[in-house]
Amino acid sequence: MSSTTAPSTSNPASTSAWGDVADLRTLNDSPPHQLTVADLLQLDILQRGRPEVLAGTNLESRVVRWVHTSEIYEISPLLKGGEVLLTTGLGLVGVGPAALGDYVRALAERSIAALVLELGRTFARTPQPIVDVAREAGLPLITLRGIVPFVEITETVHAMLISREVARLRLARHIDTVMTSSLVAGAGLSGLLRDLATLAECPVRLYGMDGHIVAASDPLTGAPSESDIGPANALNIAGGDYVLDRAGAGIEGRNTGRGAGTDAAAITLPQASVELRSHTWGRLVVCGSPTVARALIAERGAVAIAIELGRSGSSGGGPSRRRAGAHLLRDIFGRQYSSVDDITGRAAALGLAIRPTTPAAGICLSIDTSRRAINSRTTSHPPQAATARGASTADIVADAAESILGPALVAELDGSILIAATTGAGDPRHLLDALADAIDAALPGGRAVAVVCGPSASDVTALVRSLRIARESSVLARRLHSDMRTLRYTDMGVHRLISRFATDPELAAFVDEQLGPLLDYDAARGRELVRTLDTLLACGLSKAQTARALHIRRQTLYQRLDTIERLLGGIDLTARERRTSLDLALVGWRLRTAGAAPVTAPPGSGRESQLAPQDRSGS
Q1: Kind and range of the H or E element at 362?
Q2: Which one of 49, 63, 335, 478 has the lowest number of neighbouring Cβ atoms within 10 Å?
Q3: Residue among 120, 112, 98 at smallest CA distance from 56
Q4: pTM: predicted TM-score of the whole model, two decimal places
């Protein structure tokens, strides 16, 4: 392969990342290369011996692990492979043709790199059996016609091999130090990838075994640009490795200025498998031209990522885009991220682009598995039991969300299911209705309830707020047993506001001021005047609808309304001010009786026991 060397970048962050091994930064500019027999023949010390290759091909692929000298005939058992054996042939004196062939054959079986025979001292010319067997076995056979002290050859080559290994070990130690610091600091998966990208001076991606990007980072922004993660620049898998799918597509990062080479499309990127608990979790890919440093960064980075995944509990069952999305959504909801760019890049890598042109929103819902909820299902789609079999509730909701909303992040959180997805402009209720129906169709053992959409979000900060508002509204809707299955956050605006004062004595005093006589009456006589008034207002003052909702006769309702009017001093419910005060008081009453907060009566009111939820449940 032709050289893919790229000029070193001058990014200050990259320079500081190399720390006290800045002298090794050149390893990020050269392709990975091991010393080969072809390289050995180009050394001045070998050229002095006038080398001649009598057998063997592809010398550039014969890696030299070590150089050894020996005049022993039975040397092969002492070799491990990869050695270049230097000999004058002294141990071969008096050996017959068959034995000479066996000598070469034994060396080939040990997979040595090459046999170098110095002529002149023992043999004036190379014995033909050695040449024949070497050619037959494919073992490189090199003769030296000039005298070169073997000790000088070994000193030269060993110094090269050792210096390369020392440089590699120094770099590995530095990478491990950087990774350990990130792990100890709790930087998380995004922090590890950010540090790896800074060291590699190019984008870094973590792929799951399903081929989806789990996380990604860029050395400049900490997150990949949209062009880096778009389909045009996606990486393909060839023979189990990630390679570029078109010539030179973004392989060096955006600041190298290198043009695409003719063979760039065939480049296999530096990468390493993330092995976790005896299985392959995924693959770390360094999206830059192959260099010595990047190969090592991929190798050591994969180990650090495995540690982080094991520590964070993200190891079970192998990776997937969906699991990565759930992990990301929890990070967003809990504000567990180092920067907005970081979390935006992770979301974009999973298919959810959060930007002003395509705003996202937080959605929260719950699954009601009670018999009443299942019997009240209104979806026209037949239950698909096969879809639900073997799948978790979150997976079923994720399937439904992606079918209705497109790319979505889904996660379970304390009994609720959170969704982050793009909802488009306008009222999202039709999408929420379709989502609820799709969930019901795939989940015969439950029903989607309290499906609430939060405000539109054009960035991650706004999405955090949207998710929190959606969850708060959904939880309140469930506690209040709202009849509305799908809601916007604005539908629960008053409830969210008043719920913040649920434990405030001022709210208890206000409820007592507006509804006190009715609360006293209900507590003393076991009636339901407060519930009756609440239902009347909910039915828009329609007495017929109120009677049906309460399952009572109209005459009974009229009697209750007369009592309510008398106890509250002749109220006029057509007056907006009076009706608003009562409505707010009833919201506060319902929040407190629904268990949203401990109920506390105003001190000295004498109604502490009457305000307790269990005393006002009614029949």
Answers
A1: strand 360-368
A2: 335
A3: 112
A4: 0.52
No. of H helices and E strands in the chain?
22, 16
Nearest CA to 509 out of 608, 611, 601, 612 is that of 601
CB 417 within 8 A of CB 449: no
Short-list 518, 525, 476, 536, CA closest to 611:
518
Task: State how far the alpha carbon of 191 is from the alpha carbons of 67, 200, 338, 579, in Å.
Answer: 43, 14, 8, 55
Tokens for 358? 């395509």
Q: How do strand 83-87 and strand 114-118 relate by DSSP bridges? A: parallel
| 264, 244 Cβ separation under 8 angstroms | yes
Q: What are the residue ranges of helices labelled H in 142-218?
A: 150-185, 188-200
Tokens (6 digits) for 246 = 């078109």
| Maximum Cα interatomic distance, the chain, rounded to a whole number of Å | 131
User: Residue 422's beta-bridge partner residues?
Assistant: 360
Provide the residue type at 278 as one letter: S
What is the Cα–Cα distance from 460 to 338, expressed in whole angstroms? 12
- Could you tell me if 76 and 107 are in contact, meaning their C-beta atoms sit under 8 angstroms apart? yes
Q: What is the per-residue pLDDT across 60-107, written as a single tens digit (0 to 9) for each?
A: 888 888 899 999 999 989 998 988 999 998 989 888 999 999 999 999
How many angstroms separate the CA atoms of 551 and 530, rounded? 16
CA–CA distance, 1 with 561 (Å, rounded to integer)? 91
Q: Which residues face 215 on adjacent strands? A: 206
